[in-house]
Design goal:
- By secondary structure, the chain is an all-alpha fold.
- The protein has five helices and no strands.
């Protein structure tokens, strides 16, 4: 006997489902239970590893279009959240990098000389005399 509850809507992958005229194609966030400390740690760590500083990360929590982060803002308050973000950045660090884009390849004049590595032939000949 099948103990699974009946499904009222067939399970169809969104990529294979045709778009309907009245579908707003927008995402809706909902709150779920979880550990707010863990979420805060993961968000700060992720953005710090992308090179974001504390103030940039704090601005994400101010944005009403990020409802989950906004809930953390409401939960901790700005001053407490600022302290927590600073402590997490102190712990994990911020990844910094520099990018250089070269439109044209460098000239070959500055290229290093290719040096062949190996045992010189005269050394190999001496070694064969003692064998």
């Amino acid at each position: 006997m099948n103990s699974e509850p009946p499904r009222f809507v067939p399970k169809v992958h969104p990529a294979t489902r045709p778009a309907e005229a009245d579908d707003p194609l927008s995402l809706h966030a909902i709150s779920l239970e979880g550990d707010p400390e863990r979420m805060l740690h993961c968000v700060v760590q992720e953005y710090a590893w992308m090179g974001w500083g504390g103030e940039q990360i704090l601005n994400l929590f101010r944005d009403p279009f990020y409802p989950a982060l906004r809930e953390l803002w409401d939960r901790y308050g700005e001053a407490n959240l600022r302290e927590r973000i600073a402590a997490l950045i102190q712990q994990t660090g911020v990844f910094h990098f520099r990018v250089t884009i070269r439109e044209e390849p460098e000239s070959e004049e500055g290229e290093p000389v290719l040096i062949e590595l190996g045992i010189p032939a005269q050394w190999r000949a001496k070694g064969s005399d003692h064998a």
